[in-house]
Amino acid sequence: GQQVMQIPQYQHVQEGEDFTTYCNSSTTLSNIQWYKQRPGGHPVFLIQLVKSGEVKKQKRLTFQFGEAKKNSSLHITATQTTDVGTYFCAGSTGANNLFFGTGTRLTVIP
Amino acid sequence: KAGVTQTPRYLIKTRGQQVTLSCSPISGHRSVSWYQQTPGQGLQFLFEYFSETQRNKGNFPGRFSGRQFSNSRSEMNVSTLELGDSALYLCASSRVSGYGYTFGSGTRLTVV
Description:
By secondary structure, chain A is mostly beta strands. Chain A has strands at 4-7, 10-14, 19-25, 31-37, 44-49, 55-58, 61-65, 71-76, 85-92, 99-100, 104-109. The termini of chain A are far apart. The model of chain A has no long low-confidence stretch (mean pLDDT 93). Chain B is mostly beta strands. Chain B has no helices and 11 strands. Chain B has strands at residues 5-7, 10-13, 19-24, 31-38, 42-50, 53-57, 64-68, 74-78, 87-94, 102-103, 107-111. The model of chain B has no long low-confidence stretch (mean pLDDT 93). Classes of the chains: A mainly beta, B mainly beta. Chains A and B meet through strand 4, strand 5, strand 9 and strand 10 of A and strand 5 and strand 10 of B.
């Protein structure tokens, strides 16, 4: 079955440091989505990437979709305490479901 | 506009009982998906409904079932509850199947 692996599982950074989480799929994806879940909350949609090699930015967040459409990354520049939470990638093959990655839990130390 | 509403927020059930969870999607969203979230297994896909039809089902036993009504509201049922069914059950809706889901706050089910 389809698997979406995410690394690292946990990341502790000092406030102001950068952070990156990586997502790898065993199969080619039609699109990849990123979600953020704050502690005690529910996942919130951040962005969707569709095109091979696509790069999108949202303020301090940069999202990339690999050329082979099997991997993706989320990079946060100069982390802030508001960035705390678990970041999930979710891959779709267009078969009407999303396979969520295992998530990266980010802790930001003030 | 109103978000995705899930009821109840918390539920405690005994092993062997059955439970029904409800999800009201955002108005205009016809796709409703259900996920189970546990610390050990992460977010696992249960099933998706679109216009009252189940489009896809995850790898869960037949004890887990769902349905969608003509107004897009969805229910999920779990029969013969087991301790391992304790989890946060999340419902997500989207206008287009597979894109940009909006999640509800979830129903936290505890089986004792």
